[in-house]
What we know:
Helix content: 10-25%
Number of domains: 1
Mean pLDDT: 86
Pfam families: LRR_5 (PF13306)
Protein name: Leucine-rich repeat domain-containing protein
CATH topology: Leucine-rich repeat, LRR (right-handed beta-alpha superhelix)
Organism: Desulfoscipio gibsoniae DSM 7213
Keywords: Signal
CATH architecture: Alpha-Beta Horseshoe
Largest sheet: 8 strands, mixed
Strand content: 15-25%
Amino acid sequence: MKFLPRTVGMLTMMALLVVALSSMGCTGETNTGDFVVKNGVLTRYAGADPVEVGDSPPDDIEVGMVVNIPDNLGITAIGGLAFSYRPGISEVTIPKGVVSIGEGAFGNCTGLASVTIPDTLESIGNGAFAGCSSLTSVSIPDSVTSIGPSAFSDCSSLASVTMGSGVTSIGNHAFSGTKLSSPVIINDGKTLYYVPPGLTSYTIPDTVTTINDYAFSN
């Protein structure tokens, strides 16, 4: 009987360990260096940021953080808000295999000047890059079919978008608050999505059969 307390204590510790291990197995979450991955989704960037939230991005963008997401993590999606409010990030390379970028994933990364999007990507979520005020250009690969509302809204330096041929759907206000000077036409030239507010004249191409509700807003 005198060994009973010790036995009970050991059993309790073992039970707690089993519960902890079971919990880890259920979440499926893995912390791989700077990246937290759960079931193929990069849910959070855990790397340090040299610029505090609320500060301006570095004057010399070259001193900002360059983030290369490893292609050996088995990532198929960038989760919502995964990189949001990281003003020190200046460049991001998204690896092949990623098919979706979640809502607000890179929102308000005010120092982000360059993003490389793979040709496996299919969708860009709502507000995915909203408020990325240092982003000047973006190339959307042919694999992308949909771009969510406000995806690039308030990217105040964005002056050039190369639109892939596969895009058939763009949400409202996806490019509001940008510096785009050329209209955005999608769906094999059939849909006029956006006409920049500063444009003084524009001839709608004969191929256009549909005009987006907010194409001529502002």
